[in-house]
Write the structure tokens for this entry.
Amino acid sequence: MTEVPVTDVPRLLPRPLALPDFPWDCLAPYRARAAEHPGGVVDLAVGTPVDPTPELARQALAAASDAPGYPTAVGTGQVREAIIGWMGRRRGVQGLPRDAVIPTIGSKESVALLPLQLGVRPGDLVLHPRAAYPTYDVGARLAGATPVPVDTDADPATWRLPEPSDGEAGRVALVWLNSPGNPDGHVLSAEQLARIVTWARERGAVVASDECYAELAWEEPWASQSVPSLLDPRVTGLRPDGSLDLGGLLTLYSTSKQSNLAGYRAAFLAGDPVLVSAVTEIRKHSGLLVPAPVQAAMAAVLDDDAHVEAQGETYRARREALVEATAAAGLVNDPASVAGLYLWLSGPDSMSAFDLVGAFAQLGIVVAPGDFYGEAGAGRVRMSLTDTDERVAAACQRLRATDLFRR
């Protein structure tokens, strides 16, 4: 047999899109250090749910498990009606047409692929929050576009965009919003959302809002009212016939956090039917189909409010304990972090984000450095509410007893 020279074996192409390294890989040494703690690790880094998947979801999944045929990309009538009902009951968005919603394979699929699916081109600008989940940046790069962090809390008239390099400024093609924000827990009011929508529509840009933490509001005014959706009529405006003006607007929502369905990959996209149709066509060709049993489980949890409220109270109790314990340790949670699944903590000015991660690791606690979320995260760490009650209690006990973060 002739041996093929190693030099003739095809190699992986270089990374032309300049994608960043997967950030979580660099936490390995800190995880190893935390594992040495005699009381065991408390993992508050990634934010993966640990509480049981609701029984109603498991029953619906089992009942729909005889699914020999291919599911449709557009989703079953059952799941689309459940999405529409959820948006009306919980998000204040009444009267969505059926062609305005589709199920998706988790919400990260849309964060990463929406620029490609919407036809964002090389040279276009994709705006995203200054402190942001890294996949907004990655999704722009996958489309060959330029990701641009902006202060979405501020008036869009103050946003500073890149100067034109060849006599023409890049087109603002897409504006990403995330409210409540990951990692910072900031919430955009209906008035703020409306200003951004007006600004984007004047430029022909799509606005996409990632709203997967909308059920987790902790402080007023949001604790007693719904966190506003991008599709709220106060934001969209109304057409002459009284219907929502959904033009150029899309929202993402996930059942991962509210219903502990992260392992099911069960989410949805809602908004402008023209944009939803364009995304659906690409998903058909790509085979991005949500399994039929998962669609049944998603419909079940979207039709039930009780388990969502119970899970919210579980997270509320963990958050209150962690806020108190981190403050006792000398850490400061961002005052505007009023919702979502995370604390956004700073320590002494002398400590970088990775210094803070290292100090937490000495306590057997794993957190994420703010550097993962852009330059706005310098000197901060993100702490999730997603470990068991027992582990969260252990973390609180260690934090109250430490002087590692004293100024």
